[in-house]
Amino acid sequence: MSTSLLYHAFGIRKGFKYTRTQYENGAVIFVVKPEQQSLICPACESRNIIRKGVIWRMIRTVPIGRMPVYIKVAVQRVRCFCCGVIRQIKIPFAREYRRCSRALERLVLTLSNHMTIRDVADFLKLGWDLVKDIQKEYLKKRFNKPKIHKLKQIAIDEIYLGKKNDPQYLTIVYDLKNGNVVFVGNGKGADALQPFWQRVKRAKANIRAVATDMSPAYISAVMEHLPGAALVFDHFHIVKLFNEKLTDLRRKLFHQLTEKENKKLLKGTRWLLLKNPENLNTDKDEPKRLQEALELNTPLTTAYYLKEDLRQLWSQPTKEKAAEFLESWLQRAWSTGIPSIISVANTLAARRSGILAWYNYQISTGPLEGLNNKIKTMKRQAYGFRDLEFFKLKIKAIHLSRYALVG
Ligand SMILES: [Zn+2]
Fold first, then answer.
1. How far is the CA of 36 from the centre of ligand 1 (A)?
2. Which CATH number goes with the domain that contains 378?
3. Which residue, 149, 155, 152, 150, is CA-closest to 208?
4. Do 26 and 85 fall within a single domain?
5. CA of 44 to the centre of ligand 1 (A)
6. What tens digit of pLDDT does each residue of 95-133 get?
7. In 3-state terms, what secondary structure has residue 186?
8. Same domain, 265 and 326
9. Is 136 within the bounds of a domain?
10. Contact 205, 151 (CB under 8 A)
11. Cα of 4 from ligand 1 centre, angstroms
12. What whole-number percentage of the chain has pLDDT above 70?
């Protein structure tokens, strides 16, 4: 075994020399010693030192095939006459307090681009926690505080993690230019965003537009902290709000219908009502079934067509036309006399300017739904909640490729 092979294949830096190889319990152990002439004080780099014995350390490094490899290294203790203190010399190929080499850490990170933590741990015969810690340290360095001074357009959204979790929600801020997650706050509403506003202020970021849902907490928070920015109510959330009312209406109607025949027509139509008509599946008779349900001619029918109409609000030629369209839509909605539709109309009327601001900044959280679903998938993997900090770092890294550090 040559020192140069250790240097190139196992990341042992200069200053150490190979002494022997041992084989123990199916593992290979390379024994190395520091070269005397390279000894210096680790604090002041003085050569004015004397040796004070060694401490042996076992450091795990990259395997040979599937055979674990350790480096057994004599860590020299030295007394420095400049500092007047006894210290251990530094080992350049491993982090302090880590029992694995930097080369092994790099291998773990490379494999993590293609495999889950469990897979990497099994393959390298390492502990799950060690693989996680290596990932966490890397993510922390890279994503803990994303640079936000160039932030121009953002979307704010919350993710529900479930009743049993603490916190139950996370609030997520996305950079809409590149889809990156730039902030993850605990909880929801104004408090969750407080640390983000502080960072925006410190970074002197000049945010021009913010897409959010219509919740009053976000509205007042954005107006307070970004008074110059345009607030754009997300059309994705507006349609979602309407869809929720549609689902309620359908449920009520189902209970009101007395004739079995009619009930049958309504059965299983929930998703059809929420689907965009162009997405209906003709092979499954979806257009026909939807048509039959609508022909019952109930408040549900009215609401359905109003929803379909509302989508056109975002395809008007100009902002002025859109404003006219919204007014006429509101008039129709109010005239239906259906309480839940009227309440949606009232909400939209109160938020007119933010809804129409879409014509100044065509932004929405819609494209980020995919990321939200990915986060929910990650949430189901138990590690999320044993270590909230790790989970939040994973969320910030989620825009990386499909497997990159996600599993
Ligand atoms: Zn010294």
1. 16
2. 3.30.420.10
3. 152
4. yes
5. 4
6. 888 889 999 999 999 998 888 888 999 999 999 999 999
7. strand
8. yes
9. no
10. yes
11. 30
12. 96
Token pair for 374 = 């990915």
Domain annotation covers residue 211: yes
Same-domain pairing of 298 and 323: yes
Q: Quote the ligand 1 centre to 32 CA distance (angstroms).
A: 24
Q: How far is the CA of 70 from the centre of ligand 1 (A)?
A: 30
User: Do 279 and 181 fall within a single domain?
Assistant: no
In a domain, 13, yes or no: yes
Ramachandran area for residue 146 (φ above 0: left; ψ -120 to 50: alpha; else beta)? beta
Q: Which residue has the higher pLDDT, 129 or 277?
A: 129
Per the document, the length of the chain is 407
> Separation of 88 CA from ligand 1 center, angstroms?
11
Domain-located, residue 393:
yes
Question: Distance, CA 40 to ligand 1 centroid (Å)?
Answer: 8
Residue that finishes a domain, picked among 35, 65, 99:
99
What's the CA-to-centroid distance between 96 and ligand 1, angstroms? 18
Confirm whether pTM is higher than 0.85: no
Does 247 score more than 60 pLDDT?
A: yes
Q: How far is the CA of 42 from the centre of ligand 1 (A)?
A: 7
342 and 375 belong to one structural domain: no
Task: Tell me the residue type at 63.
Answer: P
Domain residues for the domain of 305 are 235-359
Quote the ligand 1 centre to 179 CA distance (angstroms): 49
Distance CA 77, CA 386 (A): 39
* Number of domains observed in the structure of the chain: 3
Are 340 and 239 members of one domain?
A: yes
Q: For the segment 129-166, what is each residue's pLDDT rounded down to a tens digit? A: 999 999 999 999 988 888 889 999 999 988 888 887 77
The Å distance, Cα 86 to ligand 1 centre, comes to: 9
CA dihedral sign of residues 347, 311, 332, 353: positive
Q: Which residues pair with residue 209 across a beta bridge?
A: 153, 230
Amino acid in the structure at residue 86? I
For residue 60, the model assigns a pLDDT of: 94
405 pLDDT more than 60: no
d(CA 54, ligand 1 centre) in Å: 17
**How confident is the model over 33-52, as pLDDT tens digits?**
888 877 889 889 898 999 99
Q: How far apart are CA 246 and CA 396, in angstroms?
A: 34
User: How many Å lie between the centroid of ligand 1 and the Cα of residue 71?
Assistant: 27
Same structural domain, 239 and 352:
yes
Using the mean position of ligand 1's atoms as its centre, give its distance from the Cα of residue 49 in Å: 8
